[in-house]
Amino acid sequence: MAEQPELRSLKEGDLFAGFLLAQEALFKTSAKGSEYLELKLADASGDLRGFLWDLRAIEGDMDLVVADAFVRVKGQVSLYNGRTQLRLDKVRFAADEEIGDFSRFFPTSRRPREAMQAELDQLVAGIGDPWIRRLLEMLFVEDPLLRAAFAKAPAAKSLHHVCLGGLMEHTLSVAAMADRACAHYQEMNRDLVLAGVLLHDLGKTAELAYQRSFTYSDAGNLLGHIAMEADWISQAVAQIPDFPEQLRLMILHIVLSHHGRLEYGSPVLPKTPEALLVHYLDDLDGKLEAMFRAIREDAGQGSWTPFSRTLERMFYKPRWPAIP
Amino acid sequence: MAEQPELRSLKEGDLFAGFLLAQEALFKTSAKGSEYLELKLADASGDLRGFLWDLRAIEGDMDLVVADAFVRVKGQVSLYNGRTQLRLDKVRFAADEEIGDFSRFFPTSRRPREAMQAELDQLVAGIGDPWIRRLLEMLFVEDPLLRAAFAKAPAAKSLHHVCLGGLMEHTLSVAAMADRACAHYQEMNRDLVLAGVLLHDLGKTAELAYQRSFTYSDAGNLLGHIAMEADWISQAVAQIPDFPEQLRLMILHIVLSHHGRLEYGSPVLPKTPEALLVHYLDDLDGKLEAMFRAIREDAGQGSWTPFSRTLERMFYKPRWPAIP
Amino acid sequence: MAEQPELRSLKEGDLFAGFLLAQEALFKTSAKGSEYLELKLADASGDLRGFLWDLRAIEGDMDLVVADAFVRVKGQVSLYNGRTQLRLDKVRFAADEEIGDFSRFFPTSRRPREAMQAELDQLVAGIGDPWIRRLLEMLFVEDPLLRAAFAKAPAAKSLHHVCLGGLMEHTLSVAAMADRACAHYQEMNRDLVLAGVLLHDLGKTAELAYQRSFTYSDAGNLLGHIAMEADWISQAVAQIPDFPEQLRLMILHIVLSHHGRLEYGSPVLPKTPEALLVHYLDDLDGKLEAMFRAIREDAGQGSWTPFSRTLERMFYKPRWPAIP
Amino acid sequence: MAEQPELRSLKEGDLFAGFLLAQEALFKTSAKGSEYLELKLADASGDLRGFLWDLRAIEGDMDLVVADAFVRVKGQVSLYNGRTQLRLDKVRFAADEEIGDFSRFFPTSRRPREAMQAELDQLVAGIGDPWIRRLLEMLFVEDPLLRAAFAKAPAAKSLHHVCLGGLMEHTLSVAAMADRACAHYQEMNRDLVLAGVLLHDLGKTAELAYQRSFTYSDAGNLLGHIAMEADWISQAVAQIPDFPEQLRLMILHIVLSHHGRLEYGSPVLPKTPEALLVHYLDDLDGKLEAMFRAIREDAGQGSWTPFSRTLERMFYKPRWPAIP
Amino acid sequence: MAEQPELRSLKEGDLFAGFLLAQEALFKTSAKGSEYLELKLADASGDLRGFLWDLRAIEGDMDLVVADAFVRVKGQVSLYNGRTQLRLDKVRFAADEEIGDFSRFFPTSRRPREAMQAELDQLVAGIGDPWIRRLLEMLFVEDPLLRAAFAKAPAAKSLHHVCLGGLMEHTLSVAAMADRACAHYQEMNRDLVLAGVLLHDLGKTAELAYQRSFTYSDAGNLLGHIAMEADWISQAVAQIPDFPEQLRLMILHIVLSHHGRLEYGSPVLPKTPEALLVHYLDDLDGKLEAMFRAIREDAGQGSWTPFSRTLERMFYKPRWPAIP
Amino acid sequence: MAEQPELRSLKEGDLFAGFLLAQEALFKTSAKGSEYLELKLADASGDLRGFLWDLRAIEGDMDLVVADAFVRVKGQVSLYNGRTQLRLDKVRFAADEEIGDFSRFFPTSRRPREAMQAELDQLVAGIGDPWIRRLLEMLFVEDPLLRAAFAKAPAAKSLHHVCLGGLMEHTLSVAAMADRACAHYQEMNRDLVLAGVLLHDLGKTAELAYQRSFTYSDAGNLLGHIAMEADWISQAVAQIPDFPEQLRLMILHIVLSHHGRLEYGSPVLPKTPEALLVHYLDDLDGKLEAMFRAIREDAGQGSWTPFSRTLERMFYKPRWPAIP
Fold it and tell me: What is the DSSP letter of D270?
């Protein structure tokens, strides 16, 4: 795929030609009875609306221009209520093969993947307990498919770290906080805590589908990520001869209980200090990321972000001392 | 262990000598300052209180006479407020080896184990779908330890079917109702429903400990029976070559969702007709058993059973037409 | 009313002339400032949108063209985003007298009314307990208005069995399941259970209005169907000399408690086995019908139905084994 | 029954002989092995504990001395931890015929019954709306059994106004407040509000049993007072020719909705101003009475009453300005 | 500002020129690609939609025409679906200085401000307890800014008494009811109750912003009105030498607990009779006002108002006897 | 007060004479009719039961021997069911003046007060923001009464850190964790977070009474610690000229919202990152302390602590790797 400008960089009057992901595709009818096409177009840098007023300008099969398909478009940038949009001259369906690396069409973690991967490997290598280290190596180092998936998956569908690499970014952030917490609460077993942190959302690599949009897979909807990762851990443990049963229970307990409450999808409550700690730090990290991002990204006037349905509140944007 | 009368059959004035399970053992002090021993003694037919007024009559090591130990006692039956009790002359600790079959000291299902086992085997053999039948055979027929445990476990700690064999009795009752329901709701996949019914509480064989009392095992408290049975199913499926992934998801989904609500410990809600049906029939059977038993066993006057904390209500005892 | 094609059978290009129910009627203004009329038009087979771009084509009094009125329309079928719609040439209000049988404009139960009525009569006739049978005869056989209303009413406004005859269809389905359940749980009083089933939603004949749309009547909103049917039962019982008071209480108890929880509108919890059973089977039947219907009717791609706000989940559409 | 001193008036050393209600009767065994009888004895003025150390002093059939029976006792008052108790010399069962007026053994409203009855009659006579007045006359004036029951019943089992006449006292208090509220909120229909107030707890005459203790009747447990009074109102209205249907709905709506929330046992929410007002004033009156009584009756030190399980809080006892 | 007609008085064909508050201002694009301006325009009497089809008719800086700004408009009234709207010929931004009294653009309490102010002063002057009267004088009489703010503030953002002066209107209504309630419940300390009533929503003068629209201020969102008024009371009390500590606690307790439940934002539950009374009367008054207003203002057909999201129900509009 | 052995150090047969706090004092009667006195006696090291079988051995006024009084006792240690108790020979009331330092009778924080005080002073001195430092100095350094109270108060009545100095210990633990968290989440304003941490429970110095037992003061019950500390902060800020209003709001917001949910007593939800962080770290620290303490102090057999009613679960006691 040839070079093309990022959507975020477009300014009024710019011409644009390139591939984009059609997150929405709606054929609408105007009051005059004429039909037009409205698209929500996205690349990794952002998204905007595109309008094609004359449907005859669609090349090829019109029925292929649907939500979650890639399209090739040509048009000019205009400004509407302060937001950029595209007045399109041409639209055509684009096969996956033309696209190459899908990741150019999704938001991606601000941290480079290599740096995160190295940090993860170091964490695993630094585990002192041989049983725990062995288990983590099997899942995070020696299984190439899982290793790749863990590096690519988002952390959630809509709540926090909704980007490629978001799962790893979130996991590493919780791990770093957990490291500090274990230095403070010295009765904690740091190896056990880190195992819980690294494993707690591993199942999201299969719960979330993110080929063309961030959504739940069938397995994700039917089983949930907690059941899936518990299964994987159990199968990995079964391949480690003489793995201590008590340790197996403790690790699985952290994973199963990390949502903290039954009504949030954990079948058991945290009953060990390590499980309680992992639950709090995971929850805190996700909510803080959502809050900081909402504050950072809100371009609107006034002191408050839009209402967050997840956290059921607006956030206060001003910082002290004021950021110049 | 020699023959001894059942506790339920004892009458005022009877002499009793034999082994009993001490469910409680309390050393108390009287206002005069003398110490005595109060025991809650049980066999499979029921329980009563025993009093030893002179601690010097304890043979052997007094510190071994604790809750959940077996004891050998000798004494005479008296009546107190209409209930039988034992005035003890002798008490001594009894080692497990003296006892033989522990099941003589627990309530046991009213249905004979052999009849239930045969009914279960027939159910499995009658499954038409080869994949499902294979999975059930592995777990219920070919694994001798699991087969034995399933035949012996209670269905719950305190709610319903609290007796040896209770898990199998409950499971078969739900299966028979499920069979009738599938005849009525003909869009149901009967094989899938029956698989869900047979598997839904299998993990209770490891969740509940019942060597000396009905309680939760460590694994039960840390993981819960749903996570354990999901693990076992997953491992069994992994040994069946080419087991269809979609079917695996559907079966695991029924098991994971069978408590019906997140706050009742299911990490996902029932999302298929089969999962919804298994949830309702399981819930109904347990509650009905608890209600019928409470009505049957309540010897008190008045129209109402004692308040059931589980169901948060009293039950109305009179039946229509009146039972003569 | 003359013959006219069913809406469901229309194809692009077809001409249509006939009577339809206007479920919605909105006068809208286009950006050009011209006004047009958008209708949601329905018959028993389905519904579609109709557009009249020139309001002068309305015959007669324009103010009569409102939601829940019948209209006579003429126009041609077009296709928009894969759905049929009507481009209208003529619209006029139609008085009720022109319409004849309203039921042609509502969805109707898939089971023929006569078959259902016969099944109901047989159920009543088969009740062994003379008091219960007498009560049911008074309400379901001898009261012609109630008998007719019961045969016609929907079972709910939007949840399940939302069609003419839906109440009877739902009631008979629960009754058939109850019959099977009583064969399994032999301590149940089958006559009492069936009385509870037949009576449990009788008040919906007055709670729901369904002359032009399915909605709540004033009495339905102010009292609810449970209070209304309890009133009717009480008045019928009062006319049966020497009706046993205990039986009256037991029947009313099933009816009052059948929603199972106070927060679902039952003023008392089920406290007899019969009441518990009726609650579960009623709840199960409604939810299963909603789930099966959603799966059957969803024409969309993907494995999941749209989110059901009633059950707060999506349903998984694939069946095992796959339906060819 | 001859005169006998009130329990509340007894002082240490007094001799007592008379009839009392045995609210509890327990045969206990002492550490020495001797049996004794412990009674909770009550008359309308209060209760105390009685002890009979020698069971041979029981006259007649010992098995008749049970909870909720009347007994004739003889003994002497002693003081224990600042509370009076009775050391008994004689105890015998007393048949109901010996007792005469049971009300001497229950707490009774502080307001004289005649004054309350007159106030009620005046309220009914003062209703301007002829339909409403007619309905109230039928239930409160012309039905002698209901009139008597309404004058005698308690308002609740344990929450507030737990005394003979408590229902009428509570009803009149709410009515007086409602009168004031209608003077303030002039859009209210005062007649309708008063009808709602007078009728809202009428069913408690049958919900609560209070022959020997305050408890729920079978009908009360199975149907609840709301369903019972709705039934009675409906049957009374049926006997008034041409009673306006809308008014019937409005009155029944107030009664059915007066608990204010579904989870408190109302099958519908208040949807008219009159229904909303009755709900608030009823709720307020009950809670205030419970709070004032708890403050008044608490003899303990400190600023706080014992924890009220009903209101889930302690109450602050000091009053401003301080009561000397 | 010159005289101009009230929006409510406009009829089809009228010409209008004057200042209005733009509650919404949206630049939209038509299907033809032309842009137009849609405004929601308001004065104290009501609001309507205005459309400017040619943006060149905007005088001065177009970017100043935003929501919550004042505008000067010229246009003609037309009718659309039975509602008036303005087809605009001219629109320009208007600076605050041109406007004068902002209150002409907000709904205002039906009660005249002077009458309410006099009633409030009389209430304060009539307080018998010198400590309480002193406190109320400091806040309601001697602090001119607070006195003015209290007279002007609305009682809520959207629930009830949403108009200038609404806070005072609501407060006085509760006070009048409280006066009647204290006459009925004679154990109440009337002075304490009235203090609680007058102070309970005082913080809304700072919680709600109402310069251009009714919304929450930053302080309101961050602290809430309860914390703010508690702070003010505490600071006022600190300036009254020897103010009794117990009285301070009692007054603050009423204010802190007046929402009645923790989940409604009160950090403590009402634990004195006075606090319980204030909570009930405040809650009742707000809900009744909302209900009466919804019934009064609903011009629609049918017996029911639109669904109230606040009260989670529709209200029944018919009154008994019918209002002619 | 002279030296006396700690209760925890007593062994069977020891003689004891000294002052103790009577946490409970009950006069009981034995079956023989003789009265005796049972005391729960405590010093800072623990508590045990004491029995005085002959009431004539009480010196001085018997009515002064009540719960929460100090007593001087003499007796001998015996063993009962493995627990020590005191068989008393003499008991007399002891006036407060005899006792001297009350803290000898309460559990005390494991951390020395001086070390904690120094750490606190250092934290305050290290605050970079001059406004925040000034505020903290006023409250924690310059107000000698508050400084002393903060050093002495417990952190809670029964949940966690229930000991003298517990409030400071808990506060410093949260502050140390907050320091680490701010190093990780670098967008946080560390000074603001630390201000929130130090202030969040300051009001507990007045909410909790701990002269003779840990309980709530009247002010604590009526206002709660959140309202009290918000008041103090507000009054301190009022004395700092030109304190920025926005900073005042942000600090008060952290304090008001730190319980995290309305139903836990916070009148507002956390709406800034700093407020969210303080809530999580406070909650985590309290729960972890409770869990670690329960595990540490449980002397019982088995893997599980007793059920914690606060956290609604048992805790798993085994640690990994096993503590030898």
Answer: -
